[in-house]
Amino acid sequence: MSMPRVVPEYKDELRKKILETATELILENGYKSVNMGDIATKAGISRPTLYLYFKDKKELFMATLKNLIEEVGSAAEDSLASDNATPDGGFFDLVTERYGTRFSIFFEIMNETEVDPQMVEEISRLHEMILKRMAIQLERRIPICREIVDPYIVANSLLALFIGLQIRKKLGLPPEKARESWNTVIKSLSNGIV
Question: Which of 49, 119, 184, 186 is the right S-S partner for 88, CB 3.0 to 4.6 Å?
Answer without folding.
Answer: 186
